[in-house]
Amino acid sequence: MDLSLVVDNVLSPPILFFALGAFAVAVGSDLEIPQPIAKFLSIYLLVAIGLHGGHALSESGVTLPVVASLGAAALLAVVVPVYCFVLLRRRLPLPDAAAIAAAYGSVSAVTFVAATAFLQSSGIPFGGHMVAALALMESPAIVIGVLLLRRSAPAASVRGGLGAILRDACFNGSVVLVVGSLVIGFITGDRGWAEMDPFAHDIFKGMLALFLLDMGLVAARRFRDLRAVGAFLPAFALGVPLVNAALALVLARLLGLGEGDALLLTVLAASASYIAVPAAMRLAVPDANPSYYVSMALAVTFPFNLVVGIPTYLFVIRWWWG
Questions:
Q1: For residues 107 and 305, what is the distance between their CA atoms, to the nearest angstrom?
Q2: DSSP states along 149-210
Q3: Residue 99 CA to chain centroid, in angstroms?
Q4: N or C: which end of the chain has fewer CB within 10 A?
Q5: Cα–Cα dist 182/56, whole Å
């Protein structure tokens, strides 16, 4: 493996700011990012990647490779939560199995953003339609997780009607924001991108660094929650992303995707949601333990993908694609 990929990724400013946040928690610093600012940074990142993807999609158009990529994303969004649920059900109560399966069937927008920044710094092109793949994969796992629970558990253990759950899954804030920005970027094309370039491009890495500083603080605090459980959940949080990445790599190779698109599909499959899914699970499956599914996704899978996963997946793609 080309270790320079790992070194370059680890020594990039956004990743170092993530490490700074974790260090601050480890030494007991009082460093805090005010929540309104953290929320603003989340909104900024979703708008920026949506505009960038919409602009790129307006340039490429809806082609057969675009349709194939989105089809592969939809397939992974259905398969991953189902097999995860089957594995988890052997060791965990129904509510926890459903919630964790939904988290790992869904995706992390921040990991996707970090992967796009990594591709840009490496000079590897990727299609703007992959932002649509991000939006496409975020919600189905929530619905599938709840449906699996409904099929296996008494109705009383699940709150909310299916219509309300579908509405929350399809119209949660992050999905509306990224899809809306994608549509705006697509409609306005080159003219709109020229107007928004300083906002959506020039300051992007600086804003990402601040956001990852906050993520480092939050992840380090969540890691303490996993100390109380056995080795199964941390092992799952490290092993399942690798299996999901392998599934995505096979699909990307079969479909003939380019290196950039293949990496983004792999990162989406290997990531886990720690924003949209927890919000939905608190409503739909209140008996599930949030310290499990939030801590696994945020404190184990997220930093693993950020530091080791992204450069490793790119190394495999370069080796396999020749």
A1: 12
A2: HHHHS-GGGS-S-HHHHHHHHHH-HHHHHHHHHHHHHHHHHHHHHHHHHIIIIITHHHHHHH
A3: 16
A4: C
A5: 9
pLDDT tens for 173-203 read 766 777 788 889 889 989 998 999 899 888 9
Q: How many residues does the chain have?
A: 322
Q: What is the pLDDT of residues 262-292, one digit of tens each?
A: 999 999 999 998 776 776 676 677 788 777 8
User: Alpha-carbon distance 276 to 91, whole Å?
Assistant: 25
**One-letter amino acid for residue 15 of the chain:** I
d(CA 75, CA 69): 10
Tokens representing 269 are 């499959």
322 in helix, strand or coil? coil
Residue 141 vs residues 137, 146, 218: alpha-carbon distances, Å: 8, 8, 24
